[in-house]
Amino acid sequence: MNASGPKCGSLDELKKLAKSDVGAIVTKSISLEPRKGNEIPRAHYDEIGSLNSLGIPNLGIEQVAKDISAIKKETSKPIVANIAGFSVDDFKKLALAANSSEADMIEANLSCPNIIGHPQTAYDTKSTKELAEFFKDNVSLPLSIKLPVYLSQHQKNEVLELIVKNKVKMVTLINTVGDSLMINPKMEMAVMKPKKGVGGLGGRYIKPIALGAVWTFYNYFKENKYDCKIIGVGGIYNGTDAFEFFLAGANAVQIGSAYYRTDETIFTNVKNELDKILEKKGYKSLQKITGKLKTF
Ligand code: RRO
């Protein structure tokens, strides 16, 4: 899949994805009302990765639902509606609206780091639990919750427990790493304007962090005999990167920063490179390697 964020906000961008080799199309995060997003400059990309503080610029659920209907006429690829609320109530409304749209799946983005005055929902375990319960009882489409990285062991365990208790079937790991800062030393200046320059770090900068999250969650689910699928994201630029995510326990992967820096051929290239790696190593399917990372 493409990762929600780069080049997936307009109907034209969704059409480009529909014509590509991407396996499923993910929309830019959708809010209840249309949003212009944060002030510019609000994104910075280099050869290693990205920093952004877009602030959820999007057309709003009403328009995106129409765009999803339009795109469904052009492609048989599954469409994933990524929803982002500013409160638990928003998330409930968005989930119901997305559930009755023509989307095939919902990704509930509980981890946007860039909304001024609104910390990531998934760092509030109580809200996350309430939403997991609500989604279980009210959403019929497959649903993944998109999480941030957890640095507190205690909070990670709370979230893992609530995932199992509330039968969350799928998680997307991880969103960009919030409160990161990049500096232009020549100008002695932050590279972005919003939030005094801090925003979400993505791309190769965060690959080991994302892999660690996938591996930790995978092992927890295995030890608890609980079947929760994992979508891995963070720093996938080539087939080897994708291969590593599957070894760590991902069932699918998303590509964000690398797509921003290139074009739709990234999906073809990563897929072909991954196929070659599997063939060379004699693996008949991805399932054969999922979670099969060796450790000392
Ligand atoms: O729009 C954004 O600023 C944004 C979102 Br919703 C997100 O989930 N992650 C990110 O890095 N940026």
Descriptive report:
The chain contains 9 helices and 13 strands. The relative contact order is 0.14. The mean pLDDT is 98. The chain has one domain (11-288): Aldolase class I (TIM Barrel). By secondary structure, the chain is of the alpha/beta class. Helix 3 runs parallel beside helix 4, helix 4 (125-138) packs parallel to helix 5 and helix 7 packs across helix 9 (265-281). The longest helix is centred in the last third of the chain and has 17 residues, at 207-223. A 7-stranded parallel beta sheet has the order 1-4-5-6-7-12-13. Strands 2-3-11-8 form a 4-stranded antiparallel beta sheet. 36% of the residues lie in helices and 17% in strands. The protein has helices at 11-19, 61-72, 88-99, 125-138, 153-165, 207-223, 239-247, 257-261, 265-281; strands spanning 25-26, 43-45, 49-52, 79-83, 105-109, 143-147, 170-173, 177-180, 183-184, 189-190, 199-203, 229-233, 252-254. The structure holds ligand RRO. Ligand RRO binds at residues 5, 29, 52-56, 84, 109, 111-114, 175-176, 200.
